[in-house]
Amino acid sequence: LKRSHLKVRFCTNDSQKSRGELVGLLRRLGFDISEEEVTSPAPATCQILKERGLRPHLLIHEGVRSEFEEIDTSNPNCVVIADAGEGFSYQNMNKAFQVLMELENPVLISLGKGRYYKETSGLMLDVGAYMKALEYACGIKAEVVGKPSPEFFKTALQAIGVEAHQAIMIGDDIVDDVGGAQRCGMRALQVRTGKFRPTDEHHPEVKADGYVDNLAEAVALLLQHADK
Amino acid sequence: LKRSHLKVRFCTNDSQKSRGELVGLLRRLGFDISEEEVTSPAPATCQILKERGLRPHLLIHEGVRSEFEEIDTSNPNCVVIADAGEGFSYQNMNKAFQVLMELENPVLISLGKGRYYKETSGLMLDVGAYMKALEYACGIKAEVVGKPSPEFFKTALQAIGVEAHQAIMIGDDIVDDVGGAQRCGMRALQVRTGKFRPTDEHHPEVKADGYVDNLAEAVALLLQHADK
User: Fold this and answer.
1) What are the residue ranges in chain A where pLDDT is below 50?
2) Exposure check for chain B: N or C terminus, fewer CB within 10 A?
3) Pick from A155, A127, A130: which is nearest to A51 by CA?
4) CATH assignment of B41-145?
């Protein structure tokens, strides 16, 4: 893939890890990739915070804190939540809630809105559940940064200078990956790995432009078409 | 009040304390009251669990655990959440979530659905926020036991053998107390204490049948009418 003229961008909703950690993980899995090739919610959020002069109270995992190093968190005027894992204690949630309730115009930014994810130890509650808890308690609506938000996909496209209609998204989540990319004007392949479930191929609302058994098959398919 | 022929029932949404604790608290405040005069979500939930053969996984505060002493919690086929306070750790929430996801027909019972309450230390997240988190993560709808549910008010009326149209509810929450009681066919007074806010008197959806400055005024009013 790297030897072809195809441009590649890695888009993740992972909000527990910094780009450095993610790249380290992918390199160990054999991917030749650098931090500059990754679009992830944390740096996208930092961009938004800077543009709008927002100073966040952070309810995040320690692993991703380095991404927010340059952000002013004094006298917060918004709350940013990410997949904090064990960090979602009652005390931390209540603190985030209290910060929001003290604001005249409470702004809650959520890095993704996933319901849960799978670990070897079992299913794990994701940030979306805690986003809903704060939305309900405060009577507000969160701004979500990450897939399936169109802004997030556009950021990724801009980074490689490609138009939506020229791009193909490959992902395992039928709604957030495939549906999100399609709403953005991209074509989308679903891989039959990871989150994929057989029922996805008959999803009531989203239909992928194609299905592949794994990432290698998707890459082979792309290279085949690129050669023509 | 006790000397009149009026029948009295205390209805609370408190799900952190057992009836014993509640009565102790009220007695210290000068109320002549016994456990038998209290309608609270925990015993109402136990009734439902028994009727439907449900064995709960309990995510509750230690203070209310004694109310569930006689309930079979082995091999759970539902989840019961109450205001667990610090008990709402990530680990405990995730366990409740996993139990629900393993059930074919996940049943989630929530003792109240309050957004937050006020303590001297500040605003505190209530069980409703965590109910919403589990609803979203599991894609289900919880059954709420407590005000404003009509079943809850009816349980209280049955306990004293009074018809809704004969009863008057006195409470401080315009939606859950006043609105709930009125939907049940009762008349309702709002006290201008506790949760009361001046804007409640112009609430877009709920209008109390009367307002009183405090509980003493409400009692005086009732006795005055009862004497006639």
Assistant:
1) none
2) C
3) A155
4) 3.40.50.1000
Which CATH number is A163-228 given?
Answer: 3.40.50.1000
pLDDT tens digits, one per residue of B107-151: 999 999 999 988 888 999 999 999 999 999 999 999 999 999 999
Closest chain A C-alpha to B115 CA, distance in angstroms: 5
Asked whether the bond before B148 is cis by omega within 30 degrees of 0, the reply is yes
Q: Is A214 on the interface with B (CB under 8 A)?
A: no
Domain ranges of chain A: 41-145, 163-228
In tens, the pLDDT along B76-118 reads 999 999 999 999 999 999 999 999 999 999 999 999 999 998 8
Looking at residue B197, what is its pLDDT? 87
Phi, psi of A15 (to 5 degrees): -120, 15
Of A90, A128, A134, the CB nearest to B85: A90
Residues B167, B177 contacting (CB under 8 angstroms):
no
Is cis: bond before A150, omega within 30 of 0? Answer: no
pLDDT for B228 equals 58
Q: Which two tokens stand for residue A198?
A: 């057989």
**CB distance A90–B89 less than 8 Å?**
yes
Q: Let me know: does A108 contact A138? Beta carbons within 8 Å.
A: yes
